[in-house]
Request: fold
Amino acid sequence: MKAAPFGPRWLYARLAQLLPEFPNVALCVAFSGGVDSTALLAALARALRGRARLRAVHVNHALHAGADAAGRHCQRIARHLGVPIKVLRIRVPRARGESLEAQARAARYAALARELRKGEVLLSAHQLDDQLETVLLQLLRGAGLAGIAAMAPLMPFAAGWHARPLLGRSRAELEGWVRKNALSWIEDAMNADEHLDRNYLRRQVLPRIRLRWPGSAAAVARSARHAAQAQRLLAALGQADLERCADGAALSVAALRALGSERRANALRAWIDAQGFPAPDARRLAELAGPLLAARADANPLVAWAHVVARRHGDRLSIDPRSTTSALAELRWSWRRSRELALPRALGRLALRRDKHGSIDLACLPEELVVRWRRGGERLRPRAGGPSRTLKALLQQARVAPAERACLPLLYARMRLIAVADRWSDVSIHAQRHSKARARIVWRRA
Reply:
């Protein structure tokens, strides 16, 4: 059965399939100004006609001379469509050994994650040809099933969701619709740079593939869906094995050893992903699944990658961020003299703000506070009548990102932990009804 032509009606029906609460959901379109995102934003604006909260975000990477002009073009198109738009100007960090393409993508998604509001759905205009390119690039990089499964139509993202409703439509279809509706678009100057892998594939390789195999995009998308199904089965198996191997937040070495080598590696991948850490490369995963587990119990071996370290202590395997703050000296804060404290290494500023509804009683604070960073074993009592809680358990329950855990400034009254940045405070400093001077802690991140 032939698919309905692309347009507002088709897009409305597709989003209703993807999003159970549609159209009663906030939508944010990642709008580059290219033909694909122009088709998405324009068709969506016409489909909704004010029936849902819709806005657009344009990310300016500032990587070429026309970047600012592209931002202004996006603002004009959004105004024409009656859609609010925000331009995010970012800086792309340059790390040795990383491609500019990968770094720009990582910086863009980080900016979009910070911008996305709670429960909001980010919509991006990835389409059928993008899926073909992604699968082929993953194959050329030696990716496993998760990589070959490529882009999912819907997945959790930051404080909300990321949906790709156009994965079943081709670039040619979208361009035809944009032309028919007399809409203008821009071409990113970087799309002509064939030093970038995706551009080389798109401009030099795929035209020849399509000449020989005209249906290649749809066929490869089908393979990606099969890979995604197989990956979900592996994830379910990994979760079942993790439940058998769990020792609190750590894993039992004896239980891991009892698994076959393939299941052991699969369980370790699932565990690392569940903790919110990046996956290790194949060599380091092999070290985790083999030599580290086979070492003597008193050897305390470790395997490190990215900003992560996995350590074995006896029969327990644990994983933590490699702290960039462990070498920082503690700070002394005479808060009555200065209500703000600058933190080192671009970690921002701490402040005590007077607030008649604040949760902290200033009379309970000593004249001098001490600021430290995580070392392990920290505890506080965040709720009156409740038990003392470990900071590790609070962070896991709140799903605080591993990179942020190491940066959290901890406030001490002498040797007692009384506050964790602006997230939790100990009952010993909580304001009561009779408290005369109240305040709240504010951590202004850099």
User: Anything to note?
Assistant: The domain at 8-212 is CATH 3.40.50.620 (Rossmann fold). DSSP finds 15 helices and 22 strands in the chain. The radius of gyration is 26 Å. The chain has three domains: 8-212, 225-321, 331-444.
